Amino acid sequence: MRAIRLYFMLIGVSLRVQLADRRSAFIQIFGQLVITGVEFVALAALFERFGSFSGWSLPEAALLYGFSDLVFALADALSYGFDSFSSLVRNGDVDRLLLRPMSPILQLLGKELTVKRAGRLLQGAAVFVWALIETRAVDRASDALLLFFAALAGIVVFSSLFLMQAALCFVTVEALEVMNAFTYGGRQTVSRPLSGYKPLLRDFFLLVVPIGSVVYLPIATVLGREGLPGLPTWVAWPALLGAPIFAFAAYGLWRLGLRRHTSTGS
Length: 266
Hints:
The chain is mainly alpha-helical. It is built from 14 helices and no strands.
């Protein structure tokens, strides 16, 4: 409980610092809202031209797009400390994390709750609500419950990816740009129906990095669609177990990186 209280204190400090200049914070939020809004306009333009994607209509694809943006925006905002961990390694500041009587992971999670990510969050929420109205997909309590747990699982998977990126910095020092293919690239991939991708890419984001398991399959289920040929709709529930398994693997990689860490003596 003490660690949790300290975490919320860190979050409070982070928010006060970022909101000290409200005009700057608003400009950053609005800028990201516009940028991510252009992405959806481009998606809508493709549907206007081709009509559907892998049998999905624009409102159905928008539901998937909005949900993936909501989940990623929350994970990205919470995981800034992992994303910027390379600077701590490079400057020799990791020792300070280890000397404090608090989990290093909790310290990094509390380093900054990035306010500007609210732009993507607002855009994703607007698209998601519009798609819900158009598709009328969530009409049962079980559907709402599935999406709730899917959102939590999605945040866990994306945050675990950022944790893996931080763990690799113990070896590489600088953050590996290739990890963006799994974080930002993963969000981009699962914002479209996975049934339209080649089997290799589809299976990778379902089984290896289970973003598709916790984002795509639940959305397909609430829409009454077959997620993948031959898979029953109820598979979306056990598929959510991919999140804690992946988080455990990410934590193992983090612990391995800590054991390899050599103090700078600073």
